[in-house]
Batch of 4 targets.
Target 1
Amino acid sequence: MPDFPAPSGGARRGVLFDVDGTLIDSSYIHTIAWWGAFRQYGHDVSMAAIHQLVGMGGARLVDNLLPQDRDRSEDQDIMASHGALYASHWPSLRALDGAKDLLGQCREAGLAVALASSARERDLQVMRSVLDADAFIDAATSANDAEESKPAPDILEAALEALGIEAADAVYVGDAVWDMKAAAALGIPAIGVTCGGIHAAQLRDAGAVEVYEGPRHLLENLGASAIGRLLALETKS
């Protein structure tokens, strides 16, 4: 683990982290929950198709996967069903290897840390409990903080505002194509992680400046990463 000196005067730069699939091993749980919700309302959607869109906001995901001539009055019920099915898996949630250590190293090195999640507020609370890393987290967003979901950049903008930093002074870490696109919309360098099940080539094609296997792999290469470069700028200023 690289030893970065913490700068004096407080953090002026920061790292934004997606949570589902990036810090918490939940992407496939969401896939199963969406699959079950669709089946409850008579829609047979493949898990592979669902998984590719996990990380996109629920309304967008439903609209992209179901026929355009469907009964849209059921959309909210489908999303509620997904939420209930996902909540039934809360006891199974676990942090990905190195997640807490990665957050801690970034924070202790002097960077502000935000969870830029579009999860429901209650889901986010559960995931924060699983992470057990609140001592290293300066701010967190939920679905309540954005008008538009990813790939729109609203969640990232809310996280930047919560930290009081500019997009030029941030790096984003996420596991989905939609994370990369949201960061690109604001000109934020995005680090991709494949622990959510999306291939490295897909993340790079969507704008990732680099890709790692997961939090532990990123932590082991932190000095050479976009976060390391941000830290180098921080210690010089």
Note: Residues 27-92 form a domain with the DNA polymerase; domain 1 fold (CATH 1.10.150).
Target 2
Amino acid sequence: MELSVTRERCVGAGMCALTAPGLFDQDEDEGLVVLLDARPPRDHHTSARVAAGACPAGVISVIEHAP
């Protein structure tokens, strides 16, 4: 799995940081998404998918790789 974000579209709702705090945070200046781990370990894949689905602006992209 690989993650990417489009910060320019982020609205600062914080759902990503609440849902997957090991993968996402928010910057202190604008409250926009900060991607902490673009290639998360397998045990974080579910929370990454949930965070992507919970993002109201749809700024998180999840790229699935074959096992």
Note: The chain is about 20% helix and 20% strand.
Target 3
Amino acid sequence: MSMHGKTCVITGASSGLGRESARALAAAGAHVVLAARNADALGSTCDWVRTEVPGAQVSSVVVDLASLASVRAAVPQIAAVAPVVDVLMNNAGVMFTPFSHTQDGFETQFGTNHLGHFTLTILLRTQFAEGTRIVNLSSEGHRLADIDLDDPNWRHRDYDKFAAYGAAKTANILHAVALDQRLRDRGIRAFAVHPGMVATNLARHMSREDVVAVSGQARSHAIEVLTPEQGAATQVWAATSPDLDDRGGLYLADCAARSDAEPYATDPGRAEKLWEVSESLCAAAIS
């Protein structure tokens, strides 16, 4: 599908799936706004995309999703280069981090993977147009755990990095469900994507034992490790495919809609409750 005249904003665009998605969307003719926390890595990625796609339209904005102040500061910079956002790809994330907190005091996986993107999406909403698509990167890892809506930041439980990751990935799906419920009347649709098990630096906190543990908990069969090019296929499809016109709130994998996400991850009532919790936690940043 041609993306000429369209603008795509991608978080976590300096490596892995985000980097490859930027290349693919630029090759389809889109103006791609790369967002990531490391300015040097962003510059290198912009140069790489221009080499891979001669004539590519690329811009970059520094944003650290573990800081809501950074997210707020990035929004006017994005608006300056992208008055209209046709695709927002909430791609950035962390996985299996030791217990730690974001700058705002949120548990790192929930705070970065969900609340940072929740805030960014709300603050960019005036730049969405009819036909805009929001693509949240989730994972089959959502099967590891539901999110505890009474204790999303692990203040009253012993921390479990696997369960915390599962909860964050569940939140990514619930966020897409809630977004689609709110925005579909404006012709704006939201999706959650499982890219597959991809060889990227997202897994930098994983030991060999962690890989075995997750393979056994998330799915009952062996996991094929994909290249970033293969892994990015579904999120690029979600951003561009006419097969998804007039559809939304879906969990996608292997360039197809899936009906087997865990029920707790797609429940509209839980999606609304997560929205309320997220609004409360991020109130100062989104007001």
Note: The longest strand covers residues 128-137.
Target 4
Amino acid sequence: MVEPLFMKPVFQEKIWGGSRLHTVFGFELPSDKIGEDWAISAHPHGKSVIENGPFKGQTLDQLWQDHQELFGHQSEEVFPLLVKILDAEDDLSVQVHPDDEYGKHHAGELGKTECWYIIDAAPGAEIIYGPRQELKSFMV
């Protein structure tokens, strides 16, 4: 049986980031504007590195390619999941989330479907979901 895999955090600096990943989770941060911890990632801009066991030192994308048996022999060519912990010290920018087909043509990546679990929020914090008014046109 394979033991659970622990991965080195991949920190992403953001203008809206803060330092709560240190104060709440105890991470040593490279700056006080860390907005994201990519906790599970095979993304080219921040690959998780396995920290323990027989796969120690390998990146998650290497593990996905070389040991499909660990993932139930999935059919996806690339690892299809990115798990993040966010610290939004300030308002985030507007997010646009393409589907897989659109993402391949414009960014060479998968689309972006999201699921959020909010584990802590300041009093008065809010999420705005969807446009506040009908969009008549947009430019690409």
Note: The first strand starts at residue 10 and ends at 18.
